[in-house]
Amino acid sequence: MASEDKITLFTFFRSSASYRVRIALNWKGIDHESIYINLAKGEQHNEEYKSINPSHMVPVLKLADGKSLTQSEAIIEYLDETYPDRPLLPHGPVHRAQVRAIAQFIACDIHPIQNLSVLKHVGGDDMDKRVEWANHWIDRGFQALEKTLAGSAGIYCVGDNITLADIFLVPMVYNAKRFKVDMQKFPIINRINNTLLTLSEFSSASPENQPDCPPEMRQ
Ligand SMILES: N[C@@H](CCC(=O)N[C@@H](CS)C(=O)NCC(=O)O)C(=O)O
Question: Which residue ranges run through the membrane (predicted)?
Fold first, then answer.
């Protein structure tokens, strides 16, 4: 059960949308509790969970006053507004638009096509078919993303400060590797991802470092 006075994240170790919010919570240094929803066992479809999120998805961020927030980008922007130290959006409107465009390209155009429910619908129990499908769409998305980053990146996705875009990039690369995308084809994405993973806020949010990650899946 979630405690009454703390922020609670409903999360699953391998969920990339949850991974984004875990990074943001770490980046802002926000004390919180976690409740683990096992997507592989279908716990997102339980009646109790559906009353928290009718879309049957993680993440959900339950605030101390009991309100529940959904959608990783909305959650992270809420955290950025309420914990303004270490801002995740740059000052200038053009840079802000660039950051949001990268985040939304990942969240709206690449990631949903290889969600668990989509993979099951497309591939059933055929794991090779699921991997082939996900690999195709991520590879195609990364071809465009690599070109976008060639125009915007410094050390990170947009210039030399960490932004929302970086928080969306790292979980997407985790998924890409899981679905056997050849990351050598994407040197800018690969470089930024490797740089970000040297930071504890990013690495400690990774799936293998979550308490609900099964021991055999830890690296
Ligand atoms: N647009 C949502 C996407 C959330 C989402 O896709 N969650 C996935 C895990 S990454 C999920 O809960 N999938 C459950 C399912 O497909 O059954 C967000 O950004 O929060």
Answer: none
